[in-house]
Amino acid sequence: MTDRTKPEFDAPTGPAPAELVIRDIIEGDGAEAKRGDTVTVHYAGVEYESGEEFDSSWGRGETIQFPLAALVQGWQEGIPGMKVGGRRELIVPPHLAYGPAGGGHFLSGKTLIFIIDLIAV
What is the CATH code for 21-120? Predict the structure, then answer.
C-alpha cells in the first residue's frame, strides 16, 4: 500500500457534473470508512476545468489524518463505504466543496477532482 505512487489524472470530458461522482479505481479489502471516522489518506486534487493541481499529500511526502466531519461535504459523502487499501476518485461540484464563486476561498465556484488512497481508519 505504501509503495503506491501519486495518481495520474485523466483529462475530464464534457461539462462538469452537477452532483458528486464516486468511482473506485482500486477496491480496498481492509476496514471500511464510516461517517464520523478519522481517516488517514494520501490524496491529490485538481481543478476540473483547468486540470491544475491545487493540493497533494504526495507533494508533501506524507499522508494526512483528519476527522471526516472536518472535511468538505463531498469527502464526507464520498469516503464512507471506501475500504482501506482502496483508491477512489471523487468529482466534487462547488456546492459540496467550497461553495459558489465569490465565496472567499480560492477554490470557490470550482468543480474539483480528488484521487484518494485510504491508508487507515
Answer: 3.10.50.40
Report in angstroms the alpha-carbon separations of 89 from 31, 97, 101, 104. Answer: 18, 14, 23, 26
Nearest to 107 by CA among 95, 116, 120: 95
Three-class HEC string of 7-62: CCCCCCCCCCCCCCEEEEEECCCCCECCCCCEEEEEEEEEECCCCCEEEEHHHHCC
Q: Is the pTM of this model over 0.90?
A: yes
Map out the domains of the chain as residue ranges: 21-120
In DSSP terms, 39 is beta-bridged to 66
**66-104 per-position pLDDT tens digit:** 999 999 999 999 999 999 999 999 999 999 999 999 989
In angstroms, the CA 97 to CA 23 distance is 17
